[in-house]
Each structure stands twice: as C-alpha cells, then as structure tokens.
Amino acid sequence: MELFIDSANLDEIKIAASWGIIDGVTTNPSLIAKEGRDFKKTILEITSLIDGPISAETISPDAAGMVKEGKEFAAWHKNIHVKVPCTVEGIKAVREFTQLQIKTNVTLVFSPNQVLLAAKAGATLISPFVGRLVDAGEDGMQMIGESLQIIENYGFESRLLVASVRDTRMVTDAAVLGAHIATVPFKVLEQLFKHPLTDVGIERFLADWKKVAA
Ligand code: E4P
Questions:
Q1: Total structural domains in the chain?
Q2: Residue range of the domain that includes 90
C-alpha cells in the first residue's frame, strides 16, 4: 500500500520525506488555509519535496470552473492531481480531465456508488473519507472493502485512496483490505513507527551489550 502524507505543512512534509517511505501528498482547502501561505507556492514547494502524486483542490462549484482551475494547476507540475468533489459537476469535470489526460483525485467520497461513478469518469484517485464516516456512526472500512471490490470487478484503473484517517488502526485495516493508498496525517504517520516493545527491546540489547563491552 502506498502511503501519502495528508498535510500542507512544509516542515512536516520535509521530515516525512526524509523517512523515504512517503509516496505522495494530499492537501485540501482547510489544510492550505491552516498554513496561511500562498497556494501555488505551497503546492510547488511540495512538488520539490516529494516525487509522487500531489493533490491540489479546486474550489469552483461548476464543472467549467473546476476545469479552468484544474488546467492551470496541472500546468504547474507533472505530478499535480486535480482534486474535485464528488458532485455531478465534479464528475463532469473528471470526465473532461480524463480526456485531457490530466490526473485527478475525486474527494469527499462517502459511498461505494460514488466510487463507481468516479471510476467510470476515469478518476486517477478516489478518496473515501473513512474517519468522517466513522464520526457519523457508519462502518467506514466496510465501505472501503465494497469499493475495492467494485474497482476489481470491472477492472477500473482508478486507485482507492483511503482518506480522513484518524488512527493507526485505520492504516492497518486499509492495508489488510488491500487499499491502494492511504493518506495519513503527520502525527499518525509518526505513530506507525512506534511500539513499546521495540523501545524495551532496544534498551535491553544496549544494556546487555554494555555488560560485554565493559
Ligand atoms: C484527504 O484528501 C483529505 O485531505 C483528508 O483526509 C480529510 O481528513 P479530515 O476528515 O481529517 O479533515
């Protein structure tokens, strides 16, 4: 499973890039606004830190506006994936981007039927928001399993990107189900490395080594 970082914070992205296991970056208008920096500059700096899909989200409500914005984003860098919401207008825009060979990420996806529509339009990436489904009392991982089955049944080329990840368990569940990608906040990525028994084990090894070396 590929791992993306879900962040627009350059410090976090730099650290995560140094680990050598991050394959891409997702941003959204909330994450960009949180940093208080210029959108284009931020996206371009991110493309220089990680050589993989970088999602930049449109804000227009209609397909024509999304396509206009997306064409501009795509011209900034080859790795940019134009993020559009899963609405009628968004799906129309994705169809057009597909014809233009512009890579896309369909976002704010909450049902397997939305996955089916996005895949039919030729979306490169499709992002179900698992954490927000769980917040709403739904079984987010069941939705991921069903979505993966739909993609496999019909040989769609779209890749499922598990988004709105809240904790390390969601990363495990996504990987066990065979999700193609998970996009994960920095704090949760850091936690993926950790296990108390690893720390205890290191302490013991070092203590034993010191006895021999003394
Ligand atoms: C994904 O592309 C989104 O940026 C993100 O995962 C949303 O997560 P949230 O529900 O924590 O805002």
A1: 1
A2: 2-213
Q: Count of CB atoms within 10 A of residue 147's CB?
A: 26
Tokens of 68: 């206009």
Which CATH number does the domain housing residue 182 bear?
Answer: 3.20.20.70
Structure tokens at 76: 């900034």
In this predicted model, what pLDDT tens digit does every residue of 162-205 receive, in sequence order?
999 999 999 999 999 999 999 999 999 999 999 999 999 999 99
User: Measured from the CB, is residue 65 less than 6 Å from ligand 1?
Assistant: no
Query: What's the 3-state SS for 89-119?
Result: HHHHHHHHHHHCCCCEEEEEECCHHHHHHHH
- Report d(CA 18, CA 142) in Å as an integer: 33
Q: Could you tell me if the CB of 131 is within 6 A of ligand 1?
A: yes
**How many angstroms separate the alpha carbon of residue 163 from the centre of ligand 1?**
6
Q: What is the pTM (predicted TM-score) of this model?
A: 0.96
